[in-house]
Sequence to fold (240 residues):
Amino acid sequence: MGTEITLPSGKRVEITPIDGKTERLLEDKKLLQSGALIDKYLASRIESIDGDDSMTPQQKEKEVLDMLSGDRNYLLYEMRIDSYGPDMTFNHQCPTCKKTSGYQVDLRELLDDGTIKIYPYRDEPLRVELPRSGGYAVIGYMTGHEERKAAQIKDNPMSGTMLLRVKELNGKPPTIKDFDALIGEDLAAIRGGIKEMQNGGLAPTLDLTCLDCGNEYSADLRFIPDFFVPTKTNMVNASS
Ligand SMILES: [Zn+2]
Fold:
C-alpha cells in the first residue's frame, strides 16, 4: 500500500516512494530535451488515481499530462517528502552578489504554515480585455501538455510562451502573426493574465534571504538539485 494524497483539484492519488530506477530517469538527457522527464518521473510512482489501480504505465502518463501544473507540483512535493523525508538541506547562489549560502528547511512545515502557497483554482479560464485593440484573450491554466511543449521551445521563449498559454484571441486560437500585430499595451495585458494564471495549486517557489548581502529573492524548488536528489550533508558553512 502506498501513501494516498489529495491534490489541490481534489483528485486522489496513491504514490509509492522513489527508488533508484526512478532517480535514474533524472539523468536521461533525451527525456529532458523532449520535455517528458517529469511526466515519466511522476507516472512511475503512481499506484492509483481516484481509486483506479488498474492503469497501464501509458495511461498513468496520459493522466499526468492532463493534470494541471499546480497539481503536478503538489504531487512532486508530496513525493519528495514521502521518499526522502521533509528535511531539505541545500546551497543556493544569490542572484545579486553571487555568493552561495546554505539553507535547511522542513518541507512539511513550509506547507503547513503556508510559506509554500497553494492557490485555489478558478472555475473558468481568465478573460483579459485588450485596452488598445478592444479585443480579448482567454488564458487557461498550464497542464503537463503545455509544460512539455514549453520544455521544447528553443528560441523566442517570450512569444513561444504566449502562443502556448493564450487559448483564444478574439474567439480563435492565436498565431504568431496575430501577436505581431498587437500593440505593446495589449501584449502587456496578456502577459499580466499569464502571470495571474500561474497561481493555481501548489506554487513551487521558496523565498530565500541571502546570508551574505541580505537580498531577498524567490527560488524555484524544481531547479534545486537537493529537492530531487537529496544528499543531506552537503550544506556549505553559512559564513564561508
Ligand atoms: Zn547575496
Remarks:
- The longest strand covers residues 87-93.
